Every structure is written in C-alpha cells, then in structure tokens.
Task: inverse folding
C-alpha cells in the first residue's frame, strides 16, 4: 500500500465531525503533494489544495496547527503555479504565506521557516511581474530568516543562497555593483557549508 492509499484508509476511520479528521486530511494532502515527485498525477495537487482548504475550515483562527496548514497550502499553490503558470495561484500563495508569518511572531520557533517561505513566494511573483517591490520585500525577508539561522543551522546554506539570488536579481535590474559583490560573497559562504 502506497502512502496516499494508507492516508486515505486512515481518513476513512475519521468521518466528518470526528476528532482528528483535520490531521488525517492534512496528512493526506501532504502525501498527495509528495506523491508528485514519485510520478503522481497533477490532479493529485488539485485534490491536495481542495483538501487543505477544508482543513483550514477545521483549523480556525487560534488553532495551534493553522500556520502549518497555511504554509502547506501556499506550497501546494506555488507548486501548481510552477507547473501551470496561473497567476492566481502565486497571488494566493503569497497571501497564505503572509498569513502563516503573521501567526509566527518574533520569537516563535518556526518564524524562520515562515519568513523563508513568504520570501520565496514573493520572489516567484517578482519573476512573473518584475515588480521591484516584491524583490525588495523578498530580500528583506530572506535576510531576516538568515539572521534566525546562525552558523551551524541546517538551513543556513539555503538562506545564504536565496539572499544571493535576490541580490543578483537586483543587480540585473538596477546595476549596483555592491549587490553583485555581496551576492558573490554570500554564494561563497553557502558553498563552504
């Protein structure tokens, strides 16, 4: 039995109104998204998005797992945007990622993840529309995530690479040599990790 089938079987044991249905739905949506990398169908991603919208209703404002749901929904929408290019998907991804960040204020242990995710969504939107304010905000958020990922953090290299990429994009757009120099330095730092 593959992971998706296993999660569907678990969901059947959690009918509407039962305790744990939100978690069973969430787990199924993650399995559907993960299945795409293992040869799944693009319809699986559509199903995951529909399921996550239902999970959001089961995890209202104040629910401890709501940020994870918002984050996963943004990721699914961005994945679908990457494959189909629907502007509405990247716009919604930014909205949901921003909502997840709002639920993880300074000092929250997962704030770095939310900063990073929102920045990636904004960068994708910048790639689509070439609006410099999206790039500037993405750069600011990636820098903030980098500050929360000090030396030794397992995701520091990813943050260094993303800050470098944003700086390269800004250099391409505005031609400031300082951006290019900093991008190269951060790229070298990422390589060392």
Result:
């Amino acid at each position: 039995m593959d992971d998706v089938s296993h999660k569907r079987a678990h969901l059947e044991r959690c009918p509407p109104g039962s305790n744990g249905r939100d978690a069973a739905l969430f787990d199924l949506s993650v399995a559907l998204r993960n299945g795409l990398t293992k040869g799944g169908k693009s319809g699986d991603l559509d199903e995951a998005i529909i399921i996550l919208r239902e999970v959001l209703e089961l995890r209202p404002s104040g629910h401890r797992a709501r940020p994870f749901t918002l984050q996963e929904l943004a990721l699914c929408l961005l994945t679908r945007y990457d494959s189909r290019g629907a502007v509405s998907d990247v716009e919604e991804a930014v909205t949901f990622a921003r909502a997840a960040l709002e639920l993880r204020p300074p000092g929250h242990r997962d704030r770095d993840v939310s900063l990073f995710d929102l920045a990636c969504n904004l960068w994708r939107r910048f790639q689509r529309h070439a609006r410099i304010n999206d790039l500037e905000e993405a750069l600011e958020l990636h820098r903030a995530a980098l500050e929360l990922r000090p030396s030794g953090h397992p995701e520091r290299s990813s943050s260094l690479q993303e800050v470098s990429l944003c700086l390269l994009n800004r250099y391409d757009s505005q031609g400031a040599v300082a951006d290019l120099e900093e991008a190269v330095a951060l790229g070298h730092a990422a390589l060392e990790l």
Notes: The chain has a mean pLDDT of 93. Residues 98-192 form a domain with the Serine Threonine Protein Phosphatase 5, Tetratricopeptide repeat fold (CATH 1.25.40). The chain is about 75% helix and 0% strand.
